[in-house]
Amino acid sequence: MPIAKQERKLHVKVANIRQDYLHKESTKLAKKCSLIVVDDIPCKFMHRNKKLSGISLDLGIGMFKSMLKYKAVRAASTCILARFSFNSFRNIRNS
Predict the structure, then answer these.
(1) Distance (Å, rounded) from C-alpha 20 to C-alpha 33?
(2) How many CA atoms does the CB half-sphere of 11 hold within 13 Å?
(3) Over 50: is that where the pLDDT of 95 sits?
(4) Is 44 exposed, middle or buried (0-12, 13-18, 19+ CB in 10 A)?
(5) Which residues contact 85 (CB under 8 A, 6 or more apart)?
């Protein structure tokens, strides 16, 4: 099997594992908590921070937020996206 094909299959496998993990965790949170509050930090700001860039890219934070929103509705819980403020981002960046 050519290396490019093996690499493509590996990328698909990793993407499927990541998506499965996000689905499981968002479902668990939506069922367990009646109120979920998520800070709505734009991904472009997270990518500027060395500590947060790997986390946000690896875990798919944007996808996780959207999953939480629709699963919270299905589970009759509330999901609030807290408004982004520069001060909250500055606190994260300095820690």
Answers:
(1) 20
(2) 6
(3) no
(4) exposed
(5) none
